[in-house]
Amino acid sequence: MVAITLPDGSVRQFNGAVTGAEIAENISKSLAKKAIAVKVDGELRDLGEPIGADASVEIVTREHEDALDIIRHDTAHLMAQAVQELYPGTQVTIGPNIEDGFFYDFARDTPFSTDDLEKIEKRMMEIVDEDRLTRKEVWDRAAAIKHFKEIGEKYKAEIIADLPEGEDIKVYFHGDWHDLCRGPHLPSTKHIGKAFKLMKVAGAYWRGDHRNAVLHRIYGTAWANEKDLKAYLTRLEEAEKRDHRKLGREMDLFHFQQEAQGSVFWHPKGYLIWRQLEAYIRRQLDADGYVEVKTPQLLDSVFWEQSGHWAKFRENMFVVPDEIPSTEDEGPVLSGEGDLMALKPMNCPAHVQIFKQGIKSYRDLPLRMAEFGCCHRNEAHGALHGLMRVRQMTQDDAHIFCREDQITDETQRFLALFARVYEDMGMTDIRYKLATRPEQRAGDDATWDRAEKALADALTAAGLEFDYAEGEGAFYGPKLEFHLTDAIGRTWQAGTYQLDYVLPERLDATYVDESGARKRPVMLHRAVFGTFERFIGLLIEHYAGRLPVWLSPVQVVVTTITSAADAYAKETADALRAAGLRVDLDIRSEKINYKVREHSHAKIPVIAVVGAKEAEEKAVSLRRLGSKDQETMALKDAVTMLAAEALAPDLKRA
């Protein structure tokens, strides 16, 4: 007998091995019709795979949280089938799921074009209608390699050859078409449905190595139903309108150039946003007991070797030889004999050096040390993405040096600061995750146990619900992740909070405890915004460029209906500037509707319109961004009201 325990705790007995499909049928015919896979003791399996021992079993339907991954995996196979049928001789290589969809890399002489996508999609729909049955076979390793070589799939043969000895070689068939795959898969192609779309084509290197062959990638998305697909495509359309790179150009905030890849050229208006954010967060840090420091950009490699970053992070560092370049036209610029230095990719080791200056007592802790530190990371060109992924970045970085008994209090204090700041930024939908020990890590398990418990205790004490991100911690300690949901439902990870016992040990940081003994401080790495570059990009997209008044580079534009009001317009602009507002003056001889459209397109929050009547009455007509209505009031009242609106949230509270 095989005992199957269902999610509600009930147990069903079967005479010998039983499949997920048979269990679903035993529960109800309606469930059997909806079943697409099965979860056995927490592991996803094919619906038709026999279960030969007592187990906890959950039937997976399209509504299940794990269903989407299986649907997308099957849709990738569906696309590969269609491609090979339409373009004989094309080899399939690797086709994983990604966020919101999937891709497949194909080997063929001719790249795909966007025109091919419609044709491939149509064939995919036809294969769904054909309802090709799925089956799994387990092959001998040598036979599998031989088979795929014989049918011209050399990449697939190479993948099999690189798998560990003894690993099962699973081959999934959908009708006659088959591919190497771990599975699980849906029972047949009809279960995929038609809520999918092919999105774009791109180039890719085999196994991501630029020394290897160039492959041709097709990206797609797939969903459980048409409604979810439509919502996703609508969200993409809205995201395109909000793209910070597009809005950055239109609003004249910043630009990028090939000659400085991954580094931002901030224009006056863009840097004004930066300055407002920096002033705001500096006020929060001052109020929360931080001291601000400044540390060097360029440090000897010995320093990074001591910290452990040289071994773990060197490929992402800009390494600089410590020598004077040759000025001779002939011969090498550098001899290669100089010692190596590196631009700092993070501030933490330098902050330890400041902590080590002079003897620290337990009474000095916690010491909260902040820096708006400019860092450099050698990101691959293809990974760069506007403000979101750069090579030069400035963090609102800080490190808290504390005793072990202070971890919970300091963590709660930071969580309160983080929530307050993001509420001020108009982003209150925050999901918290505790990222635990990775496979490759420094420190012993006992230390990790204490560190993870301390962060969990702090989250609980703060009354916050959280999930665990198993194995996602930093190599030196666990961390908290903050996942924010923006105005159109996208999730962003912002800020960081990491607990570290390792770096103080590596860099020999100590304090004197109550008994006079030397002890290691705990180091808490934390940032609220993360980097200014990425955070500004996030804000631009969240607000679709319509930034709150206090952050807008230009808060008010004063514009005229008639040239007769030019002098009064200047008077109005001067009065607003005197109240601390950032004001532009537009007295061009253009029609007022044209000027209003132009300033609205530039995302100016308030347009102050003045004409002959306003000049006579010492009044102003205010038009808000996104509204067609106007409000007319006395100039002095408008100045008072707008000056109050233009204050940063923390200054309003004060």
Proportion of residues in β-strands: 25-35%
- Which term fits the overall shape? globular
Radius of gyration: 30 Å
Major sheet: 9 strands, mixed
Structural class: alpha+beta
Extended strand count? 36
Q: How many alpha or pi helices?
A: 21
Mean pLDDT: 93
Distance between the termini: 72 Å
Low-confidence stretches are none
Question: Can you give the helix content as a percent range?
Answer: 25-40%
Explain the overall architecture.
- The protein is an alpha+beta fold.
- It has 21 helices and 36 strands.
- The strands form nine sheets. Strands 18, 22, 23, 24, 25, 26, 27, 28 and 31 form a nine-stranded mixed β-sheet that branches. Strands 2-1-7-4-5 form a five-stranded mixed β-sheet, with helices on one face. Strands 8, 9, 10, 14 and 15 form a five-stranded antiparallel β-sheet that branches.
- Helix 17 (566-578) links the parallel strand 32 (556-560) and strand 33 (583-586).
- It is globular and about 90 Å long.
Question: What's this model, at a glance?
Answer:
The protein has 654 residues and is α+β, with helices and mostly antiparallel strands.
Highlighted features:
alpha+beta, 654 residues, 5-stranded mixed sheet, globular
Topology:
Layout: E1 2-5, E2 11-14, E3 18-19, H1 20-27, H2 29-34, E4 37-40, E5 43-45, E6 50-51, E7 55-60, H3 67-86, E8 91-92, E9 97-98, E10 101-107, H4 114-130, E11 134-139, H5 141-150, H6 154-162, E12 169-174, E13 177-180, E14 196-205, E15 214-222, H7 226-242, H8 244-250, E16 254-255, E17 265-266, H9 268-287, E18 290-292, E19 298-300, H10 301-307, H11 309-313, E20 319-322, E21 339-343, H12 348-355, E22 367-376, E23 392-402, H13 407-424, E24 430-435, H14 445-461, E25 466-469, E26 479-485, E27 491-493, E28 496-500, H15 502-506, E29 511-512, E30 518-519, E31 522-531, H16 532-542, E32 556-560, H17 566-578, E33 583-586, H18 592-601, E34 606-610, H19 612-617, E35 619-624, E36 630-634, H20 635-645, H21 649-653
Parallel strand pairs: 1-7, 18-22, 24-25, 32-33, 32-34
Antiparallel strand pairs: 1-2, 3-6, 4-5, 4-7, 8-10, 9-10, 10-15, 11-12, 12-13, 14-15, 16-17, 19-21, 20-21, 22-23, 23-31, 24-26, 26-27, 26-28, 28-31, 29-30, 34-35, 35-36
Helix pairs in contact: 3-4, 5-6, 8-16, 13-14
